[in-house]
Design a protein that fits this description.
alpha+beta, Beta-Lactamase, Four Helix Bundle (Hemerythrin (Met), subunit A), about 60% helix, disordered C terminus
Length: about 675
């Protein structure tokens, strides 16, 4: 058993030996790919080697003459050997293979030299082999050294056997030849090691540079990916303000693409000349070094409004070892949304102030509004380059009035305009005035709505005072006066209709119905305060259904040969002590067949038009198959029906396919309800 095991083990190659052979082969054999640098280097070396060996010819002739070994024969042998690289360089394309040819040639030239130098110093001629073998390492290829070593080994063995006098000047035994070959092998190993290191550290340097370059490119790509994902604009400029290639995508999005060599002020000038000039002037001061660097940087623009967007600028300089500024990182942030939000918040606060003032003192606020409008017109007539004292007085008055009414933004803009006028800054004054008029337009529009019809003839009277006047008129038998007071005590329907109109526009926009034409008619109808509040709250369901179920999208309306804009009419009218509310649309109309099917499924009566109208307003019935956040649950119209029933009213529905729907609600109000005579 042990004998069999020993036999099997001896047949298996030693893994350590295989690993050593593999490592030696890997060290001796270069990669197949020849880089451009290696090809260029070998091309030059091969050219030098050819001239080097041709230079041997006169030297060999001199050695042959000195040793009387036949100048002509040595010359012919040398030329024969030189024919090998001469023809090889023409026939072979690979520069590596050419180096093998020169390795073979070098050893053959050594053989000619030893033959030509027969005599007392013949053995010293063998040093040529060792020196040339070492020089083959300059080809940076271990295989070149191996080819040379193999050639000299075969040469010596062959000539020792055939013509020993051509190699040795004494009768050398075989073991001497083997010792000689051993030294050749040792030098070949050393020269091969040097050649491989030369290849790895010099010839292979190009590959390492390529790998390092690829690594740097990858890092730059990753860095650019990071820069591209940043919302801020980041760009580097040198000490002359020239823009460097590294930048984030946002900087191009903010200000556009820039050309190599452009300065940052050049880039800004394409979007905003004023900001560019400001930046350029202060950068020049920074370059001159007149001010301390921190102060000079602080003078650069920190914020600007460019092409409708608001930006902030941050500056981060870098320095060399001597403390001189080398370049500067400029970080640009788009704060447009932040500014808009702050603007909206400030506007909301001031609108609240406007509301409180308008509600608390309508007449006083109306007077303030009218006076501010007059003052603003007078300010607008001013020449910002040359203002008059009256215009300055108007501006100062408006500032004081705005501050008194809590409109801080208006007062602040007035103050900024005063400063611009005082400094003679016409361009700045125009900009501030535009901001002032825009801000006043925002506040003034809301103020006008809040004031409504408040004018010089309007007064505020409490309802209790009107009731006292009514009772006095009745007691005095003043029937006409009592009727007018009763009318004044009633609640107008016009504000409710205006609110419904605004809600209808919002719903139409939300449902992509395009422009909605609205017709609102109150006919100055009035109702007793609080009597139909529940119905007013439910009526929004009717408006919503008219837009969602009735009015088609613009595309559908055009396809049906209708105007792209839908129409909704809401009106109120008092007839025979009843309030009639009508909601009419020009949409697709009610699908009565679908209403009938839904009513049948729910077990509701559906035989007559009256039954179908009742079913349309029944709970849980909806003509929509899917539920949305606006409709589809069958609840809205049921709420309306409940409110009408509570007021003992009635509902009438008229609808034509493709023409629209009219819903009319009649609510009895009593004899006290009236319209003006």
């Amino acid at each position: 058993m042990s004998s069999a095991s020993h036999t099997i083990a001896s047949d298996v190659p030693d893994e350590g030996s295989k690993g050593l052979i593999r490592r030696v082969a890997q060290a001796a054999i270069l990669p197949k790919k020849i880089t451009a640098f290696e090809a260029s280097y070998l091309r030059r070396m091969n050219r030098i080697a050819l001239w080097f060996f041709y230079a041997h010819l006169p030297a060999f002739m001199l050695v042959a003459w000195a040793n009387r070994t036949g100048v002509l024969s040595v010359t012919l042998m040398t030329l024969a050997v030189l024919a090998v690289p001469t023809l090889g360089c023409r026939a072979v394309q690979s520069e590596r293979v050419k180096s093998y040819v020169f390795a073979f040639t070098s050893m053959c030239m050594g053989g000619v030299l030893v033959h030509a130098g027969q005599g007392p110093v013949q053995i010293e001629m063998h040093f040529y082999f060792f020196s040339i073998l070492a020089m083959l390492a300059l080809f940076a290829n271990p295989m070149t050294v191996i080819v040379g070593a193999a050639t000299v080994a075969v040469h010596h063995l062959a000539l020792w056997y055939l013509a020993p006098a051509s190699v040795f000047n004494y009768d050398a035994p075989l073991w001497v030849v083997l010792v000689h070959a051993n030294f050749v092998a040792l030098e070949a190993i050393a020269a091969g090691f040097i050649a491989r290191n030369f290849f790895d550290n010099v010839i292979g340097l190009e590959k390492r540079v390529e790998a390092r370059t690829a690594e740097l490119c990858e890092r730059n790509r990753e860095m650019q990916t990071v820069l591209d994902s940043i919302e801020q604009g980041i760009v580097m400029v040198d000490a002359k303000c020239s823009i460097q290639p590294e930048h984030s995508t946002a900087i191009v999005r903010f200000f556009g693409q820039y050309e190599p060599g452009e300065t940052f002020s050049d880039l800004l000038s394409r979007s905003c000349v004023t900001t560019a000039e400001w930046f350029s002037m202060n950068w020049d001061a920074l370059e001159e070094g007149f001010l301390p660097l921190e102060l000079a940087i602080d003078q650069l623009p920190k914020a600007a409004k460019i092409a409708g967007s608001s930006y902030t600028f941050e500056y981060k300089p870098t320095f060399d070892e001597e403390g001189e500024m080398v370049d500067m990182l400029i970080v640009v942030s788009d704060i447009t949304n932040d500014v808009a939000r702050e603007h909206a918040e400030a506007l909301q606060r001031e609108l609240l102030t406007v509301f409180e003032r308008a509600m608390g003192d309508p007449r006083g606020f109306a007077a303030f509004h009218q006076e501010s409008e007059r003052l603003l017109r007078e300010i607008a007539s001013a020449s910002h380059a040359n203002t008059q004292s009256s215009e300055r007085l108007a501006l100062h008055t408006m500032k004081g009035n705005a501050a008194a009414y809590g409109l801080g933004s208006i007062a602040s803009l007035c103050h900024s305009l005063e400063n611009a006028w005082s400094e003679g800054d016409a361009r700045g004054a125009e900009s501030v005035f535009d901001a002032l008029t825009a801000r006043w337009a925002e506040l003034g529009t809301i103020a006008s709505r809040l004031m409504g019809s408040v004018d010089e003839d309007s007064i505020m009277v409490r309802s209790s005072d009107l009731e006292a006047i009514l009772q006095a008129s009745i007691d005095a038998g003043a029937t006409d006066a009592a009727q007018l007071v009763r009318h004044a005590l009633l609640e107008p329907t016009s504000p409710v209709l205006a609110r419904l109109e605004s809600q209808a526009q919002a719903i139409a926009a939300r449902l992509d119905r395009g422009h909605l034409r609205t017709i609102i008619e109150s006919h100055d109808a009035r109702v007793p305060p609080g009597t139909i509040s529940a119905f007013w709250s439910s009526l929004i369901h009717v408006v919503r259904n008219a837009i969602d179920h009735g009015i088609e999208t613009p595309t559908e309306r055009v396809a049906a040969s209708k105007d792209a804009s839908g129409q909704l009419a809401i009106s109120t009218e008092v007839v025979d002590a009843s309030l009639i509310i009508t909601v009419e649309d020009d949409g697709r109309g009610v699908d009565w067949n679908k209403v009938r099917a839904k009513a049948q499924a729910l077990g509701l009566s559906h035989g007559t038009p009256e039954d179908l109208t009742a079913a349309l307003f029944a709970a849980d019935l909806s003509t929509r198959d899917d539920v949305t956040d606006l409709s589809g649950r069958g609840v809205g119209l049921a709420v309306v029906a409940e409110a009408v029933e509570a007021l003992h009213g009635s509902i009438q529905v008229e609808s034509s396919p493709g023409q629209g729907t009219t819903m009319r609600f009649t609510l009895p109000l009593g004899a006290s309800t009236c319209t003006p005579s």
